[in-house]
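Cross-posted from the bioinformatics board.
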Amino acid sequence: MVNLPAFPGAQRPARSYRTDADGVGIATYEWGNESDPPLFLVHGGSDFAGTYDVFAPIMAAAGYRVISWDHRGHGDSDHTALYGWDADIRDALTVMSSITTKAAPVVAHSKGGALMLQLADASPYRISKLVNIDGMPSKRRMPDAPDHDQTRMMAGEIAGWLDFRHEAALTHRKPGTLHELAARRGKMNPRLPIEWLEYLVTIGAREDDDGWRWKLDPTMRFGGFGPWRPEWTLLRMIALGMPFLGVIGTVDEPMGWGTRPRDLIPWVPRNGRLVAIPDVGHFVHIEKPNEVGQMILEFLS
Amino acid sequence: MNTSMPKTQQLVHNRVSLALHTLQTGSGTALLLLHGLGEHSPDTVPEVVSRWPGPIYALDFTGHGHSSVPAGGGYSCEILLADVDIALRHLGGACLLGRGIGAYIALLAAGARPELVYGAILMDGPGLAGGATHISAVTEIATAGERSGKTPDPWALIELSRDARPANYASTFARLSSTGANGVDPITVCCVVQPPWIVAINEEPGVVTGLSVEEALENYAARKNI
């Protein structure tokens, strides 16, 4: 029997179950008392609900029924043939509707934050207060290259993505030891302690005969191309009417979006505010769970 | 005439099975038909392409016709582009004739794989326009209600009719299409309906307008090296 790593303050959810989202099984988790008011936590791309294992208990201890879920293709949710922005939002609505059809507060990180900005814009009656943790993309930073070179770069991106689609059905995640997987993730999360990353492996990966593998669907590919422009998210953000809190770190990271506070200030909604926390990276709530948790609790109250 | 070829082949695109129909066998440049949104491939050679001298194929997009229906939607035009890319690699290249959303996908394919698309003809049909070009205009999160698992997949109809098709995105693909080996007039727009993305590509070099579908087919069929 191997002792799996623990992490100070981390607690697995009190309840876990599956929610059916139009035939897609969504792994759903809860911390805190079922009778407490709901608070939804939404994770970012390539993450899973377990990345809230320190932050969620802080919210639960303050009197919330905290609900989170693994997005399709992530964690223990089903792998699907197709992935898309609207599909992720529909899955979110399905989970939220299984808890309440009334407006409820939402805390969302990174891609989850951008998804919730769209949901808040589309269905303002479903979100009472919105906290967005570094999920506010600004205009894409393009390299200093002439138009024809940028077009050529895009051609390379498209061809690479299409080539990957031919092989996607045959792809598998590379196995490794628990420590190796943590170290690999550390390249994308360089500011997070290895002990935390090893803890995440025990949740977001599974142990096969030949080693540990991340559960993230290998057919999903980081990056890609499409008509979506990051700045469209800001067009939604400024239109929001519910109380809004944007939280952003000031240190660039591989998983971060490179957004600067000055990029966002013109787009903060009238009923909102933006807080920039110095010397913190993309995973603000993981690096400073108590400080960020306290700030969010004050906002929610 | 090759009569041993099965009428319908199933191609693998990740977890989706794509139906590629052979409507006419023969040698020479293949013509690949791309249907409109909510439609499926024709069972026989349509009158409009009856004079095409080579083999004619038709592809059912994901969630349409005899292709499989994925659970829970997640459609995008880029996924349909990848459907076409699977078929193009299988065929070794083709001229594309796209109806409606198939026209937009034909444009994307011509830009993405200029070495495999010898010409793309864009014609009117369902799903030509796409969603609003200003993102804040489309907000409601649509639901499909009871699901049947049959084609056409309601999620395909909902998601693909809402997708934004910015003019500059379409123009980029038109530009990319002319960089291929067959880069002389690779795109012919035969649409009467002119949504903003078509208006934008009409201005790009290598995009021909003012021809009928039959004339466009004749032009591409007449090229010896395609």
